[in-house]
């Protein structure tokens, strides 16, 4: 396979707070190839947004710090890039759209002003040329009225604002688009419009998309591959079909079982007992073990590794790894590794 | 559920908010948040109300409890008009009418301990002496799945899911008959959401509660409701039994709404109806049918005449001119 556009390996990003060290991202591996849409799924606090902000170089340091690992974007390690280099890449080769389209546009400047600024920061062209580029891109995202450039963010609805954000992100034709919950703040009918638009842009320009979401429905509709995170780690990675048909990790299984579905009617929903662990005091061994219905002795002692269960399907769970080594057998090497 | 008089009967409810502008705050316009909404809730059932932001579903819930005073219309609880009650009578009536809010952070007083939060409604409604109240608080905590020891803690010491359990316990404390739940699980993660939904279902069975369940999430509403009403721009456009509504939606808006929900199964291929444009401003709603500018089946009559909210048989209410043709 060709070199991925984005390749994160063994990334550890910790926050050093007064109360102790928060291991927000703790050994994450992730790759996005050209033209691919990869979903990054997990519940609040699992580290999915921190991972994406780290790629963009938007984590304030301190208190955050990349403790280990690399983020390679088109082969270049971004953890070592200078702020100046990051500024050149950001918004140009790599762009991001955020959940809140209201707070991510400047209320004091017109839409045209903000788009032209984004273009002229990275391209040497006249204002008029930049305006034309902006108008063309706005047309692609479905805003065709020409007066739009003189309008201000408060004059637009949430869906329109998110279209403007997408236009701003896509206008310089980036190689990678990071979308952090792009439709969470929007209504379902508007969400359908925006998802359609993102898919069309992905097909037209071959832009790689890292889509961060908590909505498994959105994942099923959009993504080629899916990475599931829990408590700062990747617990499962596979293609979309296998994630929904044959999830391996008990957390993924629980997550899929606990969402109410339109096509079926159950008296009770499955629910994962307990709650996400406190980031300041992660449980020993497997981080999901305290909530896992399949947990057994090893789970509480040693941390499982993210290993292939089958070709292209990774899971971080002792259940699969035990089975191969014979159940009940103490995996000494794993304990040594985790220490 | 075979009773003839519904527990709650809402007829032609209307609520407007003034739009003020200028330096003297003069009224310059009006937003009709709830416009001629009619429905009823039977004892022991759950009526779900769905709709997108700004459709008036929350305002409907609040107006029913008289947290907002309606402009016109009627709200009857157990056959008696709530709107005719004076302040003191209304305060007493609230014992039977409780509410669960969306935001478990903003709806609990951060300076009160959990025990105080749960005891306060009992004091207000003069229920029991100090000792009985204390026992009742412990019982409430047990019922919603929290520990006795939690009584002495403050809201900030709990997670979102636990806080929502406290909100539910507070709503239960006066042994109400009707609970209006306004987006009770929207702020929660899916794994916690299912815990809270299960809890609400258990409590309904245990205490014979009636829910008015307001949410934007069609899957959640389908899971918990017996009947479902769909609102658009302040109006109820469709109301039917749950299975009927989800299997055979009649209003074009309901059809579009249902088709837009992403299905968590990559092998389900749905025909998706993508609506054009945005929801119009409630300050200036379209004439005739409020949905006509976005409706794929729009006719001439839709632009001038507002369709009646009429029963199409078996309690399946729809407000759409297409129904008259077939």
Automatic annotation (TrEMBL), chain A:
SUPFAM superfamilies: P-loop containing nucleoside triphosphate hydrolases. The keyword Nucleotide-binding applies. Transmembrane segments: none annotated. One of its GO terms (cellular component) is plasma membrane. It is found in: Cell membrane. The keyword Nucleotide-binding applies. Residues 8-256 form the ABC transporter domain. It is a peripheral membrane protein. InterPro entries: AAA+_ATPase, ABC_Ni/Peptide_Import, ABC_transporter-like_ATP-bd, ABC_transporter-like_CS, Oligopep_ABC_C, P-loop_NTPase. SMART domains: AAA. GO terms for biological process: peptide transport. Keywords: ATP-binding, Cell membrane, Membrane, Nucleotide-binding, Transport. GO terms for molecular function: ATP binding; ATP hydrolysis activity. Its main location: membrane. Gene3D superfamilies: P-loop containing nucleotide triphosphate hydrolases. Belongs to the ABC transporter superfamily. This is Peptide/nickel transport system ATP-binding protein. It comes from Lihuaxuella thermophila.
TrEMBL record, chain B:
Keywords: ATP-binding, Nucleotide-binding, Transport. The keyword Membrane does not apply. Signal peptide: none annotated. It comes from the Bacteria. SUPFAM superfamilies: P-loop containing nucleoside triphosphate hydrolases. GO terms for biological process: peptide transport; transmembrane transport. SMART domains: AAA. Pfam families: ABC_tran, oligo_HPY. This is Peptide/nickel transport system ATP-binding protein/oligopeptide transport system ATP-binding protein. It comes from Lihuaxuella thermophila.
């Amino acid at each position: 396979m060709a070199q991925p556009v984005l390749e994160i390996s063994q990334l550890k990003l910790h926050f050093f707070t007064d109360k102790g060290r928060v291991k927000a991202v703790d050994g994450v591996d992730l790759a996005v190839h050209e033209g691919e849409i990869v979903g990054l799924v997990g519940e609040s606090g699992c580290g999915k947004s921190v991972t994406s902000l780290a790629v963009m170089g938007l984590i304030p340091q301190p208190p955050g710090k990349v403790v280990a690992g690399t983020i390679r974007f088109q082969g270049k390690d971004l953890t070592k890039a200078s702020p100046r280099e990051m500024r050149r890449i950001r918004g140009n080769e790599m762009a991001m759209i955020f959940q809140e389209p209201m707070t991510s546009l400047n209320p004091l400047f017109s839409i045209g002003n903000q788009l032209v600024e984004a273009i002229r920061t990275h391209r040497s062209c006249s204002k008029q040329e930049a305006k034309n580029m902006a108008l063309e891109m706005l047309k692609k995202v479905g805003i065709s009225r020409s007066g739009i450039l003189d309008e201000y963010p408060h004059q637009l609805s949430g869906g329109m604002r998110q279209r403007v954000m997408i236009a701003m992100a896509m206008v310089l034709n980036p190689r990678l688009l990071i979308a952090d919950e792009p439709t969470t703040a929007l209504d379902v009918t508007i969400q359908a419009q925006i998802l359609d638009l993102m898919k069309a842009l992905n097909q037209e320009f071959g832009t790689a998309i890292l889509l961060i979401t908590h909505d498994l429905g959105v994942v099923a509709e959009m993504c080629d591959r899916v990475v599931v995170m829990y408590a700062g780690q990747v617990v499962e990675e596979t293609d979309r079909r296998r994630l929904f048909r044959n999830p391996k990790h008990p957390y993924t299984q629980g997550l899929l079982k606990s969402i109410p579905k339109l096509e079926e009617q159950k008296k009770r929903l499955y629910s994962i007992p307990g709650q996400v662990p406190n980031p300041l005091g992660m449980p020993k061994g497997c981080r999901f073990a305290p909530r896992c219905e399949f947990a057994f002795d090893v789970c509480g002692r040693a941390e499982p590794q993210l290993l292939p269960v089958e070709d292209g399907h990774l899971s971080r769970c002792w259940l699969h790894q035990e089975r191969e080594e014979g159940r009940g057998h103490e995996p000494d090497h794993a304990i040594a590794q985790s220490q | 559920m075979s009773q003839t008089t519904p527990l709650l009967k809402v007829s032609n409810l209307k609520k407007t908010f003034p739009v003020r502008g200028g330096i003297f705050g003069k009224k310059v316009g009006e937003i009709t948040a709830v416009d001629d909404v009619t429905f009823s809730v039977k004892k022991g059932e759950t009526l779900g109300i769905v709709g997108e932001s700004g459709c008036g579903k929350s305002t409907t819930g609040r107006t029913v409890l008289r947290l907002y005073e309606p402009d016109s219309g009627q709200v009857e609880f157990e056959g008696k008009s709530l709107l005719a009650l004076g302040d003191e009578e209304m305060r007493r009536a609230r014992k039977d009418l409780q509410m669960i809010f969306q935001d478990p952070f903003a709806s609990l007083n951060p300076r009160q301990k959990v025990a105080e939060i749960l005891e306060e409604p009992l004091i207000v409604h003069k229920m029991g002496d100090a000792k009985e109240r204390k026992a009742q608080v412990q019982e409430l905590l047990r019922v919603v799945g929290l520990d006795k020891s939690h009584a002495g803690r403050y809201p900030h010491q709990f997670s979102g899911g636990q806080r929502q359990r406290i909100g539910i316990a507070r709503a239960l404390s006066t042994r109400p008959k009707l609970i209006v739940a306004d987006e009770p699980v929207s702020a929660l993660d899916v794994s916690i959401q299912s815990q809270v939904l299960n809890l609400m279902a258990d409590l309904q069975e245990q205490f014979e509660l009636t829910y008015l369940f307001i949410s934007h999430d069609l899957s959640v509403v389908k899971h918990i409701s017996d009947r479902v009403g769909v609102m658009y721009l302040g109006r109820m456009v469709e109301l039917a039994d749950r299975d009927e509504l989800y299997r055979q939606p009649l209003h074009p808006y309901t059809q579009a709404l249902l088709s837009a929900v992403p299905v968590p199964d990559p092998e389900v291929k749905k025909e998706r109806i993508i609506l054009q444009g945005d929801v119009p401003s409630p300050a200036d709603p379209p004439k005739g049918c409020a949905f006509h500018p976005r409706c794929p089946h729009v006719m001439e009559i839709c632009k001038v005449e507002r369709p009646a909210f009429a029963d199409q048989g078996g309690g399946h209410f729809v407000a759409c001119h297409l129904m008259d043709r077939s």
